[in-house]
Amino acid sequence: MTTGAALQLSRDKLLQAYRTMRTIRDFEERVHEEFEAGHLPGFVHLYAGEEASAVGVCLNLDDEDKICSTHRGHGHCIAKGCDVTGMMKELWGAADGLCAGKGGSMHIADLSKGMMGANAIVGGGPPLACGAALAAKTLKNGKVAVTFTGDGGSNQGTTFESMNFAAVFDLPVIFVFENNGYAESTASSWSVACGDIVNRAEAFGMPGMQVDGFDFFAVHDAAAEAVERARTGGGPSLIEVKFGRFYGHHEGDNQSYRGKDEAANLRANHDCLNLFRQRVTEASLLESADLDSIDTEVAALIDRAVQDARSAPRPTPEQLTTDVYVSY
Amino acid sequence: MARTLSMRQALSEAFHQVMEEDERVIMLGEDIAGGKGAPGDQDAWGGDMGITKGLQPRFGEERVLDTPISESAIIGSAVGAATCGLRPIAELMFVDFMGVCFDQILNQAAKFRYMFGGKAETPVVIRTQIGAGYNAAAQHSQCLYPIFAHIPGIKCVVPASAYDAKGLMIQAVRDDDPVIFFEHKVMYDEVRDEVPEEPYTIPFGEANIVRDGGDCTIVAMARMVHKAKEAADALAKDGIECEIIDPRTISPLDEDTILESVENTGRLVVVDEAYPRCNMATDISALVAQQGFADLKAPIEMVSPPHVPVPFAPELEEAFIPTPEGIAKAVRKTVGYAG
Fold first, then answer.
1. In b/e form, how buried is each residue of B109-140, taking b as 16+ CB within 10 angstroms?
2. Any chain A CB within 8 A of the CB of B140?
3. SS3 assignment for chain A
4. Overall average pLDDT of the B87-109 stretch
5. Do residues A158 and A124 lie in contact, with contact meaning Cβ atoms separated by under 8 Å?
6. Cβ–Cβ below 8 Å for B312 and A189
7. Residue A317 touches partner B, C-beta closer than 8 Å
8. Parallel, antiparallel, or unpaired for β B268-271 and B179-184?
9. Nearest to B45 among A95, A102, A185 (CB)
10. Fewest CB atoms within 10 Å of the CB: B88, B183, B211, B299?
11. If we measure between CA atoms, which residue out of B140, B122, B6, B18 comes closest to residue B75?
12. CA B99, CA A293: separation in Å to the nearest integer?
């Protein structure tokens, strides 16, 4: 669904949306390069191609609203305002990374930004988002919680329980299912019974929307509606975002399970950044030059982040035993 | 005939052989073939580490089931099927994921035989990956096997060689009890040794004496066996001979072999990659303190990581994992103990 409401966004908001999507894209492309060059340790799961979802949703939120993310969490972190340099340092395992080098790619969090963590446990986020929403409801602060879950996570028992729980208590929580077509290497068209995840909303008595995830405006409008409902006591909503990912499940995945030229086709014909650019320039909302200058700024930002991450201080063995408890 | 195989190859051979010999054996798990429903290659992954590759093309989708990401359903279905005539091998991709399916293991599979008056059999094997070394951080690197050893009714296997992995896996599949098979992810390719081609079994509850020595007993499991071997080699240069005991299964635990070894050496170092509180090191130490106290010439030493989640940064993870140097230091402490 596209109501076009997002097209009415202020110039600043539109620039912010593009800048954030571009930041995610450049961050991910650079991480891909650095990982291939052997500079990054651990497991890395890239979000490139899915930017419209994180940004379309999070542009409706402020720092006091909470999100729970997944193992594919870089985009959500950036969309929620996490410091890009701190994130890059975290991927390098630096002592001054966003999580002091202890979390890495799959566990980045910044509670001061309402980012409750990437999560390496599939189905780990939805119950936590219910908790964030329960806190908001109890404290009557008008805040909302969003949980991003993949199509794989949509099949977890924790997710079903959370949707029921949220509906029973009318919690201000939004279940965003990012259906990129694959749960690791398994096709969601096979693994999600009932065809579309959005169909499950009815079973839990909550409104459901399915959107084209390549279209920032469609995501933004659906999220705006769900956030407004949650803020005004209307309870939970479900949004299924359908799109694709440019890279594999994780870096190093040979993707032989995918269709021939599938990822190349996504890049050529379904790039949310290109689509955004086309929409705003055709509607004369922004000039190409505005967007070009953002591209230049962001490229420099990511470059600096990588340079800073490379030269950042490394953790010392003494830091191994800190932070286990409030006072260790 | 024995050839040198990696633990990866040894396990793969075991799966092919047990599925060949008994058509009641089925396998299920996330991406164990990979590519289910996708337009490209089927059997694209063979599991996230490629261990089960080739099984689905050979045995078909009815016996090798690629599942949705739904650990409770995977493990519970395997447990249920095991009580109804099949012999499933279920994969819990990483042991860290056990939280979402723990009830099916803890309160269902483990309890049936006892609760139902000894009449139920639950011949299920749950395979899962353990261990640090991949910089995979706190939610993908744990060695949680002591949690399962705590639960009566579950057999727990922690192989340390390719030979043992094959023999113990075939034993696990033929066993009529629920067995959890803990595979250290770093060992799949790191460990290579001689493995016979034909199927064979290794009984549960029989420790392997990895190395003989009269000065100190080292009990170690999984990857720590190899760290202990390095330590023992270094110590031997100084004339300190260690006997290394690999229990191979921690439930049942071969208490006799451990106690007999300590009777000979009078000293004990237990090495365990699991968190130090309530792990196998504390359990085995308590066993020896209780039943072998008179044999001890020095206090027991335990070598485990610090009591912290597994960190991400390579330096921190390296500081987390017990080292040969740390093990050797513990041995020297027992040998140098003056009373």
1. bbbbbeeeeeeebbbbbbbbbbbbbbbbbbbb
2. yes
3. CCCCHHHHCCHHHHHHHHHHHHHHHHHHHHHHHHHHCCCCCCCCCCCCCCHHHHHHHHCCCCCCCEEECCCCCHHHHHHCCCCHHHHHHHHHCCCCCCCCCCCCHHHCCEHHHCECCCCCCCCCHHHHHHHHHHHHHHHCCCCCEEEEEECCHHHCHHHHHHHHHHHHCCCCEEEEEEECCEECCEEHHHHCCCCCHHHHHHHCCCCEEEEECCCHHHHHHHHHHHHHHHHCCCCCEEEEEECCCCCCCCCCCCCCCCCCCHHHHHHHHCCHHHHHHHHHHHCCCCCHHHHHHHHHHHHHHHHHHHHHHHHCCCCCHHHHHCCCCCCC
4. 97
5. yes
6. no
7. yes
8. unpaired
9. A185
10. B299
11. B122
12. 47
Q: Which of B39, B67, B308 sits opposite A321 (nearest CB)?
A: B308
Q: What residues pair up with B184 in beta bridges, in sequence order?
A: B130
ipTM above 0.85, yes or no: yes
Q: Helix A11-36 crosses helix A272-282 at what angle (to 10 degrees)?
A: 160
Q: Tokens 């600096």, residue?
A: A304
CA distance B136 to B317: 9
The pLDDT value given to residue A1: 44
Query: Angle CA(B72)–CA(B51)–CA(B18) in degrees, nearest 5?
Result: 80
Distances (CA, A) of B144 to A121, B264, B309: 15, 31, 11
Q: Is residue B16 annotated as part of the catalytic site, yes or no?
A: no
pLDDT at B115 over 90: yes
* List of chain A residues whose C-beta atoms are within 8 Å of the C-beta of residue B315: 93, 314-317
Residue A328 confidence (pLDDT): 61
Q: How far apart are CA B316 and CA B311, in angstroms?
A: 6
- Check: CB of residue A130 under 8 Å from CB of residue A171: yes
Q: Which residues contact B239 (CB under 8 A, 6 or more apart)?
A: none
Whose tokens are 């969490």? That residue is: A73
User: Model confidence at A7, in pLDDT bands (50, 70, 90)?
Assistant: confident
The residue written with tokens 């409902």 in the block is A229
State pLDDT tens for residues A144-199.
999 999 999 999 999 999 999 999 999 999 999 999 999 999 999 999 999 999 99
Compute φ and ψ for B89, nearest 5 degrees: -110, 110
**Cα B292 from chain centroid (whole Å):** 26
